[in-house]
Amino acid sequence: MNELSNESISTISYITVERVMGFFDQKLTRTVNRIHLFPNSISTANESFPLEDVHDLSYRPFSGGTGLFYLHTNQGVFTYEIDTKPTHFIQAFKNLRA
User: Fold this and answer.
1) What is the rounded distance in angstroms from the CA atom of residue 51 to the CA atom of residue 94?
2) How many distinct structural domains can be found in the chain?
3) H or E segment at 11?
4) What does pTM read for this prediction?
5) How does pLDDT run across 41-90, given as a tens digit for each residue?
6) Residue 29 maps to which CATH number?
7) CA triplet 80, 82, 86: central angle to 5 degrees?
8) Quick check: 14 pLDDT over 80?
9) How many C-beta atoms surround the C-beta of residue 20 within 10 A?
10) What pLDDT sits at residue 5?
């Protein structure tokens, strides 16, 4: 395997929120993870997708400064909450697909 295939071309952070219910209370845990764009794949904390299985990337901003990042794949659409615009990540993906 080529050494370059292990180097990330671009990354973007996403947030996961876990709600834990206690007997008298509930706690929210926010975790920051990363989506990595590699020459042959896109990977998250839980999944990895070959680039040939990724159809498109899109973004929907919200007024509060966060937004939803959509990863359109053969397995369906995966949604990630992000707090920065993914313009550089999407452009790097399009450059790879060109």
Assistant:
1) 11
2) 1
3) strand 10-21
4) 0.85
5) 999 999 999 999 999 999 999 988 899 999 999 999 999 999 999 999 99
6) 2.30.29.30
7) 100
8) yes
9) 9
10) 60
Give the DSSP letter string of 26-78.
Answer: EEEEEEEEEEEE-SSEEE-SS-EEEGGGEEEEEEEE-TTS-EEEEEEETTEEE
- What one-letter code names the amino acid at 39? P
CA distances to 1, 75, 94 from 63, rounded to whole Å, are: 43, 30, 26
The helix/strand/coil state of 4 is: helix
Q: What is the pLDDT of residue 3?
A: 41
11, 45 Cβ separation under 8 angstroms? no
- Is the torsion defined by CA of 89, 11, 71, 62 positive or negative? negative
Write out the residue range of the structural domain in which residue 71 sits: 3-97
Q: Which two tokens stand for residue 25?
A: 């209370």
Q: What is the mean pLDDT of residues 15-19?
A: 92
